[in-house]
Design goal:
It is a single chain. The chain is α/β, with parallel strands linked by helices. It folds into 2 domains: 6-182, Rossmann fold (3-Layer(aba) Sandwich); 216-431, Nucleotidyltransferase, domain 5 (2-Layer Sandwich). Helices cover 34% and strands 20% of the residues. The chain contains 14 helices and 15 strands. Helix 1 (6-14) packs parallel to helix 2 (30-45), helix 2 crosses helix 3 (60-75) and helix 12 (386-394) crosses helix 13.
């Protein structure tokens, strides 16, 4: 039997408007009440009525992960099917469109359609154009929308809509509104976000502007994140955290190419087993004034290969069957010519290393992952990574922007942060699972 919290029952009893929203903290139960009760009820009540039903999320994958999978756990795959090639899923006897809402082009298939019911997942991450289109499509007397979101900055387009005089019911959640979370989980999540803008948004559920230092906990005390890599056993009396060299199971290197106001940055990252600890092993930043000759691709190739060789000799390990723990290089995919040159140079000298372009996932997601690693005591750097430590200390939000953006005006070292993030972005889901 499904159990609901007081807040969730309150939503079921009062969410009877054209627009119904739950805004607030992560893991506060916003989405569970939708998958357990709201979506089935809305769809079933509109069967055989004119119009289509739609589920919108950031992407098709996020709809599957956040909405459909939890519903199947409750109602089985007989009531909640699989999204087909036409982006349609069978739910409770109704054909429901499932579409990504990050770009307006993704929802072109339903433009012109009359929508009788729409559910929105992670609405604050949508393209505002998609939301504007949706307004005109909910054109039946019985049309309605249910949606959930985590707060962003207070001038966000969705916040402006929620504060408008439209026919809206809004319910706000903090993490403490979910009685089914353990005290230990809540305590750990609070500590991960403590001292950051994400505590206000994702713990307290507030629409709060991002200001000041991004990595405040690190900036206040960088030495508390410093570690040493030792050969043999660790010294329990050491004044800094120590890791055995043998405990580093994976090393990868990020490379960010500099522009007019920046420099080239090399960053090596190590993992301990099961993504437990993230260690920034070494970093270098190269600017035009650091060399006698101009930094062309040949000079850059040579300098980068020297850095790779240093990381391999200092922190790398080779198993008895020839397997190296220095595995991959990820380069800034905005510079294809330089990236291909780096790939050729590295593969000549270090043929076991895979060289590929970075994915360059959303900067906000990369920041969030790093902050959570810091908050949970799993982020470290060595004395060889001072450029990254300095970059983290100085990194601030751009106060001139209405949305969250890291200041990138040449006054801080964004290159080292990008290079560092290229080494963890593919693993973010596992790192914060």
């Amino acid at each position: 039997m499904v159990q609901l919290s007081r807040k969730q029952i309150e939503y079921l009893n009062h969410a009877d408007r054209r627009w119904n929203f739950k805004s607030g903290a992560v893991r506060s139960g916003k989405s569970f009440v939708d998958t357990a009760a709201v979506i089935p009820k809305r769809i079933i009540n509109r069967i055989e009525k004119p119009g289509i039903s739609v589920i919108l999320g950031v992407s098709r994958d996020s709809i599957e992960r956040n909405v459909l999978e939890p519903m199947r756990e409750i109602y089985t795959d007989k009531r909640v099917g699989i999204i087909n090639s036409r982006n349609i899923v069978s739910m409770f006897g109704e054909q429901v469109w499932c579409l990504g809402a990050e770009k307006i082009s993704q929802v072109a298939k339903i433009q012109g359609s009359s929508i009788k019911y729409a559910y929105g997942d992670e609405v604050a991450k949508w393209s505002p154009n998609v939301f504007q289109m949706l307004k005109s499509r909910l054109d039946k007397p019985y049309s309605c929308f249910d949606g959930s979101c985590n707060p962003e900055h207070p001038t966000h387009w969705l916040k402006e809509f929620l504060d408008s005089d439209a026919d809206i019911y809004v319910q706000e959640y903090t993490i403490f509104d979910n009685p089914f979370l353990t005290d230990e989980f809540v305590k750990n999540l609070c500590s991960e976000y403590a001292g950051t803008i994400y505590y206000d948004r994702l713990i307290l559920g507030k629409w709060k502007r991002a200001e000041g230092a991004i990595y405040r906990k690190f900036a206040d005390n960088p030495e508390s994140f410093r570690c040493e890599i030792v050969v043999g056993e660790v010294n329990p009396q050491s004044s800094v955290k120590q890791f055995r060299k043998d405990d580093i199971v994976s090393i990868e290197i990020g490379l960010d190419f500099g522009g007019n106001q920046s420099g080239h940055a090399f960053v090596a990252r190590g993992y301990t087993d099961n993504f437990q600890d993230v260690i920034i092993l070494a970093s270098r930043r190269i600017t035009a004034g650091d060399t006698d000759a101009p930094i062309d691709s040949n000079v850059l190739d040579k300098m980068f290969c020297e850095f790779v060789g240093y990381v391999e000799n200092t922190y790398g390990l080779t198993s008895w069957d020839g397997i190296h723990n220095l595995e991959s290089v990820y380069w800034d995919n905005a510079e294809t010519v330089l990236g291909n040159s780096i790939r050729n140079a590295v593969e000549r000298e270090f043929p076991w290393i895979t060289v590929r372009p970075a994915q360059k996932r959303r900067i906000k997601d990369r920041i969030d992952c790093t902050l959570r690693l810091m908050g949970s005591g799993r982020f470290w750097y060595t004395a060889d990574a001072r450029t990254v430590a300095k970059a983290l200390t100085e990194s601030v939000w751009d106060k001139t922007k209405a949305y969250d953006e890291r200041l990138d005006d040449g006054s801080t070292d964004i290159d080292s942060l990008d290079a560092m993030e290229y080494t963890i972005e593919r693993d973010m889901k596992d790192l914060i699972a």
